[in-house]
Amino acid sequence: MAFKCFILVLFITISIFSFDATLPEQTLPPLPSMPTLLKPTLPPLPSLTTLPKPTLPSLLPPLPTLSKPTLPTLPTLPPLLPPLSMLPKPTLPPLPTFPSIPTIPTLPKPTL
């Protein structure tokens, strides 16, 4: 509770001081306008002369064609998992049997 009151008092104090600080600013004369500074200009780009394109000799010997070697055959890998028909079927273990509760014989009531 004390922390909330402290925050409230702090907020009110800042509000009052900011209000008091803005009152004298309203009576100040406006500031003179800033003169605009000239922006430096870039010098013009020099003109580029076009270079002559090189000419390739027209009679080039043809490139020799090489025959591609044949690729070896890939070896076959054995299967990682055996077929499902070869796997044994999973079975659950037998459930435990609970011992039966013995019956308590009833005694005959004595007659008086």
Automatic annotation (TrEMBL):
Please give the superkingdom of this protein's source: Eukaryota
Q: Which UniProt keywords apply?
A: Signal
Which residues belong to the signal peptide in this entry?
1-24
Q: What name does UniProt use for this protein?
A: Uncharacterized protein
Please report the organism this UniProt entry assigns to the protein: Quercus suber (Cork oak)
Organismal lineage: Eukaryota, Viridiplantae, Streptophyta, Embryophyta, Tracheophyta
